[in-house]
Amino acid sequence: GQQLNQSPQSMFIQEGEDVSMNCTSSSIFNTWLWYKQEPGEGPVLLIALYKAGELTSNGRLTAQFGITRKDSFLNISASIPSDVGIYFCAGANTGTASKLTFGTGTRLQVTL
Amino acid sequence: EPEVTQTPSHQVTQMGQEVILRCVPISNHLYFYWYRQILGQKVEFLVSFYNNEISEKSEIFDDQFSVERPDGSNFTLKIRSTKLEDSAMYFCASTPWGQGTYGYTFGSGTRLTVV
Q: How far is CA A13 from CA A10, A62, B69, B114, in A?
């Protein structure tokens, strides 16, 4: 099956630092999504990417859809304590009833 | 903002018992999904559902699992005879249409504990 590997697995950073995480796939996706999950909650969509090479921002978050369609990265600038959580990438090959294939997750901890 | 609502938030059941997890998708959404997340692991696709039929299911979704839209608002996941390894968070999601991922919204999940 399709495998999405995220790196790093976890990060401990200080407030104000920038963060970068990425996601690589064994196969091609035509849509990449980035989600954040907090304890006891479902994944919440941060950014959606629909085109190879696309670079999209949402506030302090920026994500890019890799040219090969097998990777994506997410950057968070000037981190704040509420950025704490697990960040998941997800890929989809959109067709009827699109299923998402999730990555292994990056756990982010922000210290003051 | 429209939400996907899941009940209960936490269910404890004995091994071998049947459980039904309930979801109310966003009202104008037509496609519904169940996902599972074992503690500390990634979220995994179980099944997608449209027009009262399963569209796609994963290898996890074996004969012990079934889904149903019993009325115009609920979408349920039934596990017939629970096993210890069914302990996980179960997330429901819905989308307005099947093409694309626009509006793909997850509920807060049901934590199932099988003892």
A: 10, 18, 45, 36
**A97/B50 touch (CB, cutoff 8 Å), yes or no:** yes
CB atoms within 10 A of CB B98: 18
Measured in whole angstroms, how far is the alpha carbon of residue B114 from the centre of its chain? 16
Q: Per-residue pLDDT for B47 more than 90?
A: yes
Shortest distance between the Cα of B68 and any Cα of chain A, in A, equals 16
Rg (CA), chain B: 13
Model pLDDT for residues A48-76, shown as the tens digit of each residue: 999 999 999 999 999 999 999 999 999 99
The 3-state DSSP class for residue B115 equals: coil
Contact assessment for residue A82 and residue A76, using Cβ atoms and an 8 Å cutoff: no
Position A95 scores a pLDDT of 65
CB-CB under 8 Å, B108 with A41:
yes
Q: What does A27-61 look like in DSSP terms, one character per residue?
A: S--SEEEEEEE-TTS--EEEEEE-STT-EEEETTE
Dihedral sign of CA atoms B6, B7, B9, B13 in order: negative
**Which tens digits make up the pLDDT trace of B58-101?**
999 999 999 999 888 899 999 999 999 999 999 999 998 766 77
- Taking an 8 Å cut-off on Cβ atoms, the answer to whether B55 and A96 are in contact is yes
Residue type, A41: E
